[in-house]
């Protein structure tokens, strides 16, 4: 079987980026699990707590649309976080059945603790790169995410 790669330098570079991204993702997830930022089954504890910290109470469907992941996955994570006392479900004046997910005081403290750990880890990792390299990487990843949004929006 012959594998066909893109026929230009930018295409080759994006191909290489697509190959490297899962490797980085899984290493970040493993580090996140060690830091408590990722649940034992791979749920984004820190990301969900961060959303509630910055954006305030939201419903499970709203949280799922932000990511985008299946609503059921966010429901599983919010249920787990509620059992741990990090979030609570409250009545939603805008919708009778869809409860709002809110941070508890324990959830706020946990978010701050995990966030400080991530900031410290980021500072440690930053030693390997220049500020310009990081800025360029962030720009490329944002533009790649936008291009992927466009690709996903196209009808099949």
What is the gist of this entry?
The chain has a single domain (31-145), classed as Arc Repressor Mutant, subunit A. It contains 6 helices and 3 strands, in the order H-H-E-H-H-E-E-H-H.
Key words describing this protein structure:
Arc Repressor Mutant, subunit A, single chain, mainly alpha, 6 helices, 156 residues
Plain-language structure description:
This protein is mainly α and 156 residues long. The protein has one domain (31-145): Orthogonal Bundle (Arc Repressor Mutant, subunit A), CATH 1.10.10.10. Helices cover 66% and strands 11% of the residues. It has 6 helices and 3 strands; from the N terminus they run ααβααββαα. The chain has helices spanning 9-35, 45-55, 60-66, 71-83, 105-126, 131-153, and strands at 58-59, 87-92, 95-103. The protein has a 3-stranded antiparallel sheet with strand order 1-3-2. β2 (87-92) and β3 (95-103) form a beta hairpin. It is globular, with a radius of gyration of 19 Å. The mean pLDDT is 90.
Give the spatial strand order of the biggest sheet.
1-3-2
CATH topology grouping: Arc Repressor Mutant, subunit A
Identify the overall geometry: globular
Helix content percent band: 55-70%
Q: CATH H level: which superfamily?
A: Winged helix-like DNA-binding domain superfamily/Winged helix DNA-binding domain
Helix-and-strand structural type: mainly alpha
Please compute the radius of gyration using only Cα atoms.
Answer: 19 Å
Number of E-type strands: 3
**Strand and helix order:** HHEHHEEHH
- Strand content of the residues, in percent? 5-15%
Contiguous uncertain segments of 5+ residues: none
Largest sheet: 3 strands, antiparallel
So, CATH architecture? Answer: Orthogonal Bundle
């Amino acid at each position: 079987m012959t594998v066909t790669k893109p026929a230009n330098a930018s295409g080759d570079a994006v191909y290489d980026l697509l190959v490297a991204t899962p490797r980085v993702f899984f290493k970040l997830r493993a580090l996140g699990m060690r830091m408590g930022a990722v649940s034992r089954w791979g749920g984004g504890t820190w990301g969900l707590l961060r959303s509630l910290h910055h954006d305030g109470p939201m419903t499970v469907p709203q949280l799922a649309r932000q990511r985008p992941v299946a609503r059921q996955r966010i429901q599983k994570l919010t249920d787990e976080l509620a059992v741990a006392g990090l979030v609570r479900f409250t009545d939603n004046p805008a919708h009778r059945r869809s409860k709002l997910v809110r941070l508890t005081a324990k959830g706020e403290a946990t978010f701050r603790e995990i966030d400080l750990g991530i900031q410290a880890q980021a500072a440690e990792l930053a030693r390997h790169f220049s500020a310009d390299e990081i800025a360029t990487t962030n720009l490329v990843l944002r533009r790649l995410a936008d291009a992927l949004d466009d690709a996903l929006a196209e009808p099949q």
